[in-house]
Amino acid sequence: MTASAWSGFHKKALRERQNQLRLVYPALFPQHPLPPNHQQPVPVPPHNRHAAQDPRASPSAASSASSSSLTVAYDSTSSLVGLDIASAPDVIPFPITGLDEKIADNMIENCVGTMGLPVGLALNFVINGIPTIIPMVVEEPSVVAAVSGAAKTISSASCNGDGFTATTSERNIIFAQVVILDIKDVTVAAEIIRSKASEAMDIANSFVPNMVSRGGGVVNLTVRTPPRKSFSKRARRKCEVAVVDDSGAQSWLVVHLHLDVCDAMGANAASTVAEGVAPFLADWVGGRIGLRIVSNLCVERIAKVPSYFVQKISNCIFRKKILSKSSFRIPLSKLSYKSFSGRQVASRMIEALEWAQDDPFRATTHNKGIMNGIDAVAVATGQDWRAIEASAHAWASGCGQPDELHYSPLTHYWVESDSETLKEGDEGLYFCGEMEMPISVGTRGGVLKTNPVYNYTLGLMGFPDSKQLAMAMVSVGLAQNFAALRALTTEGIQRGHMSLHARNIAIAAGAPPHAINDCVAYMVESNRVNQTIAKEYLVAHEIHSTLATSNESMSDPKHPPRAPSTFYIELPLAQSPEPITLNIAFETVGDKPVHLAIGPTTTSLQSGVFKSLFNPRFDFDWISSTVAMLDTVELNATPDFPARKGNMLLVKKLKVLSILMNILLRSMMAQWPAETKRLVDKIVKLAVAGGRVDPELAKRSGVLDRHMRSRADVDSLKQTPAALQIGRPLLLALWQVFELRVLQWVGHEPLVNILLESQLEVLKALTEMEHQIENPSASGRSKASPLSNQLFASADGDVTSSDDEPLTMTKKPAFAAPPATADQAEKDTHALLARQSRRFQYAVFMLCDANSLDVNLLTPARLRVLKAAGDLISWEQMCCHDVNAARLARDLSAQILANSAATEQLLPKEHANGTAIELELITKDPNGFVFWLLNTLGSMAVGKILANALDAKGQEFSTFATCLRNGDQPTAATKKSVLASLTAIDLHQIFRTQIASFLELFSKEKMLAKMIQGEQELNIFDKSSLLGITRAYHKYYGLESFFNK
Q1: What is the largest CA-CA distance in the chain?
Q2: Highest mean pLDDT among 6-20, 100-114, 473-487, 912-926
Q3: How far is CA 321 from CA 220, 302, 399, in A?
Q4: What is the per-residue DSSP string for 972-990?
Q5: pLDDT mean over 45-66
């Protein structure tokens, strides 16, 4: 499984995408204000492979240039530098935003305001071998998605690997036109002007000295004499009167001054030249000056994206001056799409093209789709899209092609063979496409200096010159047409277009961000997508909300980061053909980016670094089964309060993010406790500064009183082990993605606050050092239990690590204390379980599920009760987890091995080669049942019970005897032997009486059942399914027989 270029970008929240751009383009989008003496980087086009050697290019510019060609998809996160909370208020707002009214008022006359349009990114483009990101401004849904999808097909399947192979004219020529009237002999006048061409060009260049100094200016002069119809031969309206004296005029006298405008659009320069030269031309031929204006039909400024075929266009008077050609060529087999073969797609697309070639009604729509893409890029980059449109349609009408004077498509497709002899099947056949049109663009001067947004949109492309911009625009046009024809000729456009169109309709109808998904789901499911239906739904939604709420019972520029590293996970989704996918981008701290993945065919799990960060037990199968398990114990409302289907995918993704944070954090705490705790403290501090988390959460660890220098943290992190360099920014990224999605898509502030706080409490609990936990009295512990001291060790190194379940905690829940008559072992065990239960995260899962319900019913009081119920379920899950047979075998093995001397030496954190230990028997998350068992029976008694069970099974006890002798050093083989021996016997049967007593003392099932049945705030939930959650865990851990009495 390989993440495609920028895959999943369209699934991210808006702020995620913006943060990703800050990470990828640190020089273009700095997070903090630049110092007063900071020099802006010299724009370096990404197409220039040698930009780093350019003496004009600053390091920041080089970084920006290299970043612009990234081809991996990311979930956006800010870098570790973003944790500098002290400077958080100074973070620069994302600059691609609406035009300032003061600037707008100076751009046009009678200005009364501004309008906003979405700015999207066309991804997956490879042009002449260079990956290119292209900004687009368009209000029509599916345009950006279609272009990106077509670009992915072409770029990944092109024969030469260059994707779109595009070229454009050698010079950026624009025509300054001058028409001279009242000429008696046009032919003689034309020859006079031709004879003075050199003089006329010198005069013209005197009006544009700056352009001449840059290598441009007027480079040629041509004279045209197109036929001129007399008044009597023109189509006339009734009662029309002739006011133009055209007697004797058989043709026009038109002078073209060919102006090389370099990287400017050049319209104003052309008009200046035309007006300056016109008096001299008129004087030379004795005529009258007519119009002096730029021509937007720039036939010497043609960008072409064809295939390996040059279409013959006869009698084109400009053709000999056009030098631009380009191509894409795809093996026919790679053109397959959905259920259609490559040959079927090709034949249908060519058939649709032929219809457009023969029917101007179809050709108009065909070309309109092309201009959807080109105009969107033109608007995004500050170009004169009206001139581009006019020029394109003139070219499509056969301008300069007298034998083809009808409106035709701008694109052309065909299939060709790589040899004269056709091979069997589709082998050796290629689908080819081309597009050619005159296009006049500029990247210097004009409106580009007026509107600062264009600096950023052009910067996303690497600050291209005008030729590169023209090639990108015509490539977008071809990709847009390719996508449209492919969709139209296969499954149709409505299937993919409908949900996107419905989203625009919902927004236009006034849906708030958190209600858009609901509105879209309603329209699509009812198959009625229009603004009237959307408004009806939103009115009903608003009335319901009003009634419900009235009744409460209802990156740093000096240190630009490297290209981001990525973490990609793909999990199957029950009852859906589409999997859950998450693509997380995080800061690269090491020498180069690292790309990790978890999925059906992933190979990342084989790497040593990955094993250090993710316990090998938590593989793809385990995570998939855990997610499937959560589907069986999810929170459900009564039939009177159905779920919001539009939010179900968000709920599942939030749960997956929570599980991933849990797994990663446990592993990091086992290896780098101090560094990991500092990072989590910073995350909490950032959330507290945002005002959405109780400050007491941070004060408990004193993080508000601690001065932190995140830049220094980043620098020091570079000196740490490779796995920590990856794990720390990855953990930060996972939290940020979780937070951003909650903030943008949950849409109900009480739920947002309690959900974020609960997840942060989970992270805090997992990083609590042993000495921070309220320890039971050491004097009351049984001397026969060496595990007692281990459980409450005060050394910083003895901290939590990974275990079998996605454990997390919540703020210390108000669990009933043990009775006063309880012995010390019971009190100690209760204290241990209270600590451990806070590391199970079922309360977080329930709050995630609540997002799929009607948020107007989720009052703060109801959410607090729901969280309390989740805390009790977490306690119950923890008890079941500790008694699980597999966990018992591991923890009892750990206790046996712990009796050996030099226990600390048994736990090397890494092998010499850097790979993590695959078999870790001594679990640092204490097992409550084992702790209670050893404190009540004593370790010798437990050992005797195990020895008898092994003897009865016919297995030798010599391994245990070896481990119990002081001074012995168990080997890896010994560890495996101990674990295998205990796994082979029925521990549930051996300790059945003790397990039953443990569950009788510590299970919270009865307390939970009483709460569910008696708490009024839980009446909107399906209580039978709530009661069934603990039963599902009993079954999952194989404990039904202990509860079914």
Answers
A1: 124
A2: 473-487
A3: 11, 10, 15
A4: HHHHHHHHHHHHTS-HHHH
A5: 36
User: Average pLDDT of 479-500?
Assistant: 80
Which tens digit of pLDDT belongs to each residue from 84-134? Answer: 443 445 567 888 888 888 888 887 888 888 888 899 999 999 999 999 999
Q: What is the pLDDT of residues 927-942, one digit of tens each?
A: 888 888 888 888 778 8
Whole-number Å distance between alpha carbons of 105 and 627: 55
What length is written for the chain?
1045
pLDDT(723) > 70: yes
Number of H helices, E strands in the chain: 38, 14
Instruction: Give the per-residue pLDDT at 479.
Output: 94
From CA 285, how far away is CA 26, in angstroms rounded? 59
Judged by DSSP in three states, 199 sits in helix
Per-residue model confidence as pLDDT tens digits over 837-879: 888 888 999 999 888 888 788 899 999 999 999 998 888 888 8
Q: How far is CA 495 from CA 500, 616, 648, in A?
A: 10, 41, 21
d(CA 415, CA 606): 43
Q: Is the separation of the CB atoms in 79 and 729 below 8 Å?
A: yes
Distance between CA 506 and CA 817 in Å, rounded? 52
What does DSSP assign to residue 562?
Answer: -
Burial of 880 (0-12, 13-18, 19+ CB in 10 A): buried
pLDDT average, residue stretch 349-371: 91
Kindly report the three-state secondary structure assignment for every residue of 673-731.
Answer: HHHHHHHHHHHHHHHHHCCCCCHHHHHCCCHHHCCCCHHHHHHHHCCCCHHHHHHHHHH
175 membership: H or E segment, kind and range: strand 173-181
Mean pLDDT of 358-382: 92
- Secondary structure class of 255 (helix, strand, coil): strand
- The residues, ordered by sequence, that sit 6+ positions from 952 with a Cβ below 8 Å of its Cβ are none
Backbone torsion region of residue 939, taken as left when φ is above 0, otherwise alpha when ψ lies between -120 and 50, otherwise beta: alpha
Name the one residue in this structure whose structure tokens are 């409550």: 928
Residue 126: its pLDDT value, please?
92
Pairing of strands 595-598, 565-571: parallel
Strands 429-438 and 580-586: unpaired
Residue 173 corresponds to which tokens in the numbers above?
């020529």
Residues serving a catalytic function are 140, 368, 384, 497
The three-state secondary structure class of 542 is: helix
Q: What is the pLDDT of residue 26?
A: 85
- Residue 506: is it exposed, middle or buried by C-beta count within 10 angstroms (0-12/13-18/19+)? buried
3-state secondary structure of 921: coil
* Closest among 935, 583, 629, 948 to 805, alpha carbons compared: 629
- Is 587 within 8 Å of 80 (Cβ atoms)? yes
Residue 113 sits at φ, ψ, to 5 deg, of 165, -170
Q: What pLDDT score does 657 carry?
A: 95
Given a cut of 90, whether residue 476 has pLDDT beyond it is yes
